[in-house]
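A quick aside before the break. I want you to see a complete sequence-to-structure record at least once, exactly as it would be stored in a machine-readable document. Don't worry about memorizing anything.
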Amino acid sequence: MIDSFIDDILKDDTLKINSIDYFSDKKLSCQVISQGTLLPYNGPANGRTKGGIVDADWDYIDSSALYENDGCGYSVKSEEVVKVNKDAIYLGMWFPIWGHSITDSLKKLWFLKTEQAQKLINDGADLVYIITMNNRFQLSENFVCLLKSLNIDIAQLKQINEPTQYNHVYIPDNSFFREHNQIFYTKEFEDTRNNIIDNTPLCKCPVYDRIYFSRSKFKNGKHDFGEKRIEDVFRYLKYKIIYPERLSFAEQVHLLRNCTHFAATEGSTSHNSLFCRPKTKVEIIRKGLYLNEYQPTINALCNLNAVYIDSNLSLFTDKNRVWNGPFFLYANDNLLRFAGIPLIFNNFSLKDFKRYACLAYPKNKENTQITEFYSRRLIDEINMSYFCKGIIKRIAHNFLSHCNLSIWVPVYKKLFLK
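That is the input. The structure line, written in tokens, reads:
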């Protein structure tokens, strides 16, 4: 992994988490709970997630939680429990965010390939799951396509929206699991991923060697301030800019399987690299001052050549939920060095930063922890942009920071970097 484009404050930890072998040879099994009751998601409680499965004595089954050591049960009146006179296979607590859909939501699906599961299904067992955040949530079209690639009959799936008791609930072990603040995967998870790739329908859409998956046109992309300029940098590098929400799942997989370079901001978008070929060069644009624990596991599983690029000044994030944003992205010195673009094209804008701050600070002010590192960087960027000596330099910066890079970078290099 190349470390030249990582901020010093994160460099050692980034290198460390990307040097770990995340493969686990743990033998998986399936737990059977007699008179098990499924409890729909009911919000957070003291740092845990309410919802999952309890046994006949109402003891909580940890393997039914969203994450290990994360869940808990809750009380309901006996008359509120729907009793179903059959068995069920529990497919997990599904989180309706794409990055979780292609990781956490897949971790129990390995069991459906076993003879035990096939016999249960043939005998009429329900395939059940719980949705976090919103019980009225419907499975996305792309996730349905993913499930179909695993030969899962969507008509057999049952979303649990009220407390429901079955004769027996079969709970497969997790093939993608957390342990000691790290995420590990087993052969079963790798097989599930490979089955998805092998069984996704082929597409006739054009392919590109270099692709950049952007969130800028996504309905929640407004929380990623400045991604348009990140796009400009990768467009200058001859990447094709892709808006994945406009494509089918099959089209996305087709693009990912046929590229040699894949770039995206870190999070759900970069987690699509799960479907890249081994040795693909993956450029991960980090959006905030935190370590995403999913991406290193994906890097290891897929044998990717990962490059991390810190290209943000996300000063006002919630210290307890940094990944929620909002984020402030811009073409800073790290990104420009990566792209081979002169640093004068740094496009920090105080006006844009104020727009970001007006949204982010009120949202996160109670839990914002402004680091000395970011404070110093903000001062440096303001000094370089607005207080640099010479009016000509300031005018040049204002122009070059927002110009068409494909036109003006070659012109600048020819004029000033002979």
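Two observations worth writing down. The chain has a mean pLDDT of 92. DSSP finds 13 helices and 19 strands in the chain. We'll return to this after the break.
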